[in-house]
Amino acid sequence: MLADFAKPMILTFRLWWRFWPQLVALVLLGIVGSDLFMQVAARAALLNHMAGLALLTLVALTQLIVTVAMFQTLLPALPAIRAAQEAARGQASGEAGAEASGGTTRLARMVSVALLPFFAYYAAWGFLGDTVRQYSRVTLDMAPFGEGAGNVLDVLDSRWLVFSVVISWLVRRLAQAMQKRGGARSFWQIVVVICETNWIFVGLYVISRWKDDIVGWIMSRNIFSVLQAAADGVANPVAKAFADPMVPVEVTSIDTTTKLIALFFFMLLPVIWLVMTALIYGYDVRDDKELLRVHERVERLGARYRTIPKFMRDFVEHFISGYRSRYLPIANGVRITLSSGVVLTLTLIAGYRLIDWLAAWAWLGMTRIVGPHDLDTWQVLSEGVSLLFGSAFQDSSTGILVEPLRICFLAAILETAFALPKRQTGEAAEPNGPAGAAQNA
Amino acid sequence: MTAQSVVQDNGLGERKWRRRSLWGLLVLIPLTLAVEAYDSVKALLGDNDLFERSVAWGQSAHFGGSDWRLTDLRGAFGMKSLPPDSVPVLADFSVTVGDPDLQKLWLGCKVMLIDAEGRRWSPTSIVSLRTPDNVQTCISAIFSGAKTGETLNLRETFLVPKAATKTIRPAVGLGSERPHFLLFQLEKD
User: What is the ipTM of this complex?
Assistant: First the structure.
């Protein structure tokens, strides 16, 4: 059991030792890139609020690309994942495209596969809000008190957003047409990816805002307070049986339900990151029977869906085409890991949090070593400390010592799961699945 | 292409990229630090008096568009109702206005005393001494509407420990000149 725990850890450090220059360089590129794009977006926002928001998507896209590129860098040292990819490729040999195309196109494809879940992850953990907050801070710096530019975020409430989506849809169509015509394929692929990012970014952020409005509206109805009281009563029957007396804040305790919910989300983040990892590697791994069966069912659903008028289908296709079959293999990767034993899952959660924990302490320890200085000097020093370890006080900041380790750890967990003996025997016995599996990829 | 050659190929490519990345780090680390810390460094340099420009006794120095000269630095011993072992110190400057846009050039004007250990004292209002009508402080001079060629008499009052009086030197910092500041030498230097 100890060996099960130690294996991914050792692999993590082996990966890190082998690839640290590339990984650190990528993290640095990501930091510089997103900083630069943030400045560009803020400057554009002073001219036109919508343009600023559109360019803001590039910030999030930079982060995604860097993450994908880091995982790709590790691939040569992950034999089990590569073997699974090779096997999948052998099965889907009828498929034209991904394998034949060059590196840039491949990366662009992988980015577009990871796009929706990455943004979902991004939005769910509040990073989308972080990015928007950072952006509004930068613009406020440039135009103190909103002079001249006004509130750059007002476009989020305007109907012009629909235009932004329509424009990105038109540009995407154009890019796809150009791509079909041939020539500079990877360039057009990148344009497609940027358009998709724009839509998802704007869409998710607006949806999360509208959601707040809707929830607010529901909350303002009386009926809901009755329901809520009932729900609270069910969740904490004893606590609510008494009228709440005044309790000094220092003797209050957090109730069990809150603790359990917090624990759930605490454990969820590593698992979500594992999904992201599986997603990035799993693009080529589609080789599972059960999943194919699910896939066929989806295909049947697709036949029914084809009866919808074409222009509407086109519009919907813009958002979901490709995703339908792309995400099935991902479930595969995660299922493999989560079903490969409690130890590995626990290793994932504990190890991921350990890295976070160590980074936070390293940050704190470093500040102790540097010692007290006046505020302006510390502002400069803190940039250096945060560059090394990331900062919990800055929105989505990544340290060059921490981020590569985290990526190596996630890759090591997935590799360990793929390398488990029971999985390898299962693979050998597997019959060939229908090649149609990958039609939509 | 056999599987073996693919692996070898990857190995070669990997080594090449490792070397490239190592070289790249030499550029990327300073670049990232510069990009990230730009605003903080700008604030550090713009808000602090860091680099001294020494001015000999009796000389005047062009600073913030005007010519600054230290005319007197003396202690006012024997005052009552002050903390023990503390001495009020008066610093007198004579400034010939060059560029009259004082509201811009003298913004954040700070006169201070610096001792041999690097400790700094700001002006105090605890001690109030009678001053002639034509004597102003640095801040009040900004709004005096002085024209080019006029001479302003500035006085700042400090309260410093008696032990520090031996090594204190007056210094002047202006927003338009930071991070540089003037450090005036005394006659005995």
Answer: 0.77
Model confidence at A183: pLDDT above 60? yes
B57 belongs to a structural domain: yes
* Residue percentage of chain B with pLDDT more than 70: 94
Confirm if A284 and A88 have CB atoms less than 8 A apart: yes
What is the predicted pLDDT for the residue at B22?
A: 93
At B150, give phi and psi (nearest 5°): -70, 150
Within an 8 Å CB–CB cutoff, is residue A383 touching chain B? yes
Range picked from A93-102, A314-323, B99-108 for highest mean pLDDT: B99-108
Instruction: Indicate if the pLDDT at residue A319 is higher than 60.
Output: no
Contact call for B25 and A31, based on CB within 8 A: no
**B84 with B121, same domain?**
yes
Backbone phi, then psi, for A53, in 5-degree steps?
-65, -40
Cα A57 from Cα A43, distance rounded (Å): 14
Contact predicate A387/B32, CB 8 Å: yes
| pLDDT above 90: percentage of residues in chain A | 15
Question: Is residue B189 domain-resident?
Answer: no
Q: The whole model's pTM is what?
A: 0.73
Q: Do B18 and A35 lie within an 8 Å CB cutoff?
A: no
Residues 70-89 of A with CB under 8 A from B: 73, 76
Phi-psi region of B148 (alpha: psi -120 to 50; beta: other; left: phi over 0): beta
Residue B43 domain-assigned (yes or no): yes
The pLDDT, as a whole number, for residue A18 is: 92
Number of domains composing chain B: 2
Question: Does A25 reach chain B within 8 Å, measured CB to CB?
Answer: yes
Q: Pick B40's closest partner by Cβ from A21, A379, A400.
A: A379
Our CA angle for A348, A350, A352, nearest 5°, is 65
Cβ of A22 and B31 within 8 Å? no
Which of A73, A376, A387 comes nearest B32 by C-beta?
A387
Same domain, yes or no: B71 and B138: yes
Alpha carbons A281 and A275: distance in angstroms, whole number: 10
Give the chain A residue whose CA is nearest to the CA of B11. Answer: A76
Does the CB of A35 have a partner CB in chain B at under 8 Å?
A: yes
A362 interface with B at CB cutoff 8 Å = no
The beta-carbon neighbor of A32 closest among B35, B47, B48 is B35
Q: Dump pLDDT digits (tens) for A32-87.
A: 998 899 999 888 888 887 788 888 888 888 888 898 889 988 988 988 888 877 77
Question: How many angstroms separate the most distant Cα atoms in chain A?
Answer: 73
The domain in which residue B26 lies consists of 1-47
Give the mutation candidate from B14, B15, B32, B42 for the A interface (greatest A CB count, under 10 A).
B32
Instruction: Decide if B35 and A36 are in contact by the 8 Å CB cutoff.
Output: yes
Separation between Cα atoms, residue A230 and residue A236, nearest integer Å: 10
Looking at the structure, do residues B85 and B128 belong to the same domain, yes or no?
A: yes
* Residue B149 covered by a domain: yes
Domain CATH for B106: 2.60.40.1240
Is residue A392 helix, strand or coil? coil
- For A113-167, how does the pLDDT look when each residue is reduced to its tens digit (9 = 90+)? 677 667 766 666 666 777 888 888 888 877 766 666 666 677 666 666 777 777 8
Query: B150 CB near a chain A CB, below 8 Å?
Result: no
